[in-house]
Design a protein that fits this description.
Layout: H1 11-24, H2 33-51, E1 57-60, E2 63-68, H3 75-85, H4 94-102, E3 106-112, E4 115-124, E5 129-137, H5 146-155, E6 162-165, H6 172-177
Parallel strand pairs: 5-6
Antiparallel strand pairs: 1-2, 2-3, 3-4, 4-5
Helix pairs in contact: 1-2, 3-4
Length: 193
Amino acid sequence: MPFAGRPRGGRHNGLKARAVSAAGRFRGRRVSALSRRFAFLCDWLSWNREESSLFPWQCVEDRMVQFRTDVRPASAELVELFRAAQLNRPLGDPERISRMYAASNLVVTAWEGERLVGVLRGWTDDNFDGYICDLAVHPEFQKLGVGRALLDAVRRGRPQVQFVVRASAIAREYYQGLGWQKIENGWFWPRQP
């Protein structure tokens, strides 16, 4: 079995193809050598991630985003992200947000350096049912694949789990576009303020 880090078609052929792809993006523009190297790295890492489902990085435009399951963000970071993403959560009660995340067994985060740019929170029994509670992506990173990557991270390795999400009005078409199916047989008990 080939090493996950080795480009297809031999080391030099794969790297050369990626270098040409990255260089093509800069044709006719004045950019630094560092920008060209960064684009090459993004192309190579994105390509390499296709072979390894555990690769935690994704290039988003000219930025590196790291996806993590081992970090629970501070409530202040979550409040800032929820406010920017216009997610209706108890923003005035950071302790409640901390308790929400402490009680959840699915938390996937997306980071640009030290900055939280996306989060998914949910629950699952890992065998039959799952529920997505929060999916928030900072507006600067929306429509770039961060939300899809967060959803893919929780579904990966759980093919027999049916996940359910209660979408806000602004996100209904988003889930349909990703292939999620609408359900009609749902009920809820309203929460008290």
